[in-house]
């Protein structure tokens, strides 16, 4: 598996991965409101790293480099649990200065456990009642 910087040529596959991943794992959100264009809106100006094997994109992370912030981390549902997320997190950490922050939706217990198992600490829970998330830090 290769970890590399995404190019615009990767965007069609990244859009599909983002949509499919969110529709399968965001059980608390309205799937019908999600669309392919969300990827472009949710990653504007961000540095994108992807995991690829045999020409297939398996996952990506999008980073806000000035703020040392991981904005998105998604692995294609068919490849979950194979270490791809850990490799993307490690590549993201190497690209930024510590401390690094991210936000994880409070209802997303699977991802919360993933981050905690990879050295991230919960700092504070924020957000509106139905949109709570944890700010997490890696030092």
UniProtKB/TrEMBL annotation:
Entry's transmembrane regions: none
One Pfam family hit: Acetyltransf_1
GO cellular component: ribosome
Domain of life of the native organism: Bacteria
Keywords: Acyltransferase, Ribonucleoprotein, Ribosomal protein, Transferase
SUPFAM superfamilies: Acyl-CoA N-acyltransferases (Nat)
Family annotation (PROSITE patterns): GNAT
A molecular function GO annotation: acyltransferase activity, transferring groups other than amino-acyl groups
InterPro entries from the UniProt entry: Acyl_CoA_acyltransferase, Bact_Acetyltransf, GNAT_dom
Domain annotation N-acetyltransferase: ranges: 1-139
Protein name: Ribosomal protein S18 acetylase RimI
Taxonomic source organism: Carnobacterium alterfunditum
């Amino acid at each position: 598996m290769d970890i590399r910087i995404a190019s615009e040529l990767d965007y069609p596959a990244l859009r599909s991965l983002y949509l499919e991943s969110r529709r399968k794992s965001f059980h608390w959100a309205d799937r019908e409101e999600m669309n392919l264009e969300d990827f472009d809106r949710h990653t504007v100006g961000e540095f994108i790293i992807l995991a690829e094997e045999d020409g297939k994109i398996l996952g990506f992370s999008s980073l806000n480099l000035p703020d040392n912030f991981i904005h998105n981390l998604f692995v294609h549902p068919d490849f979950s649990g194979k270490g791809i997320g850990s490799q993307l997190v490690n590549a993201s950490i190497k690209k930024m200065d510590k401390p690094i922050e991210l936000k994880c939706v409070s209802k997303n217990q699977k991802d919360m456990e993933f981050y905690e198992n990879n050295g991230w600490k919960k700092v504070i829970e924020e957000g509106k009642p139905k949109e709570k998330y944890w700010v997490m830090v890696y030092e």
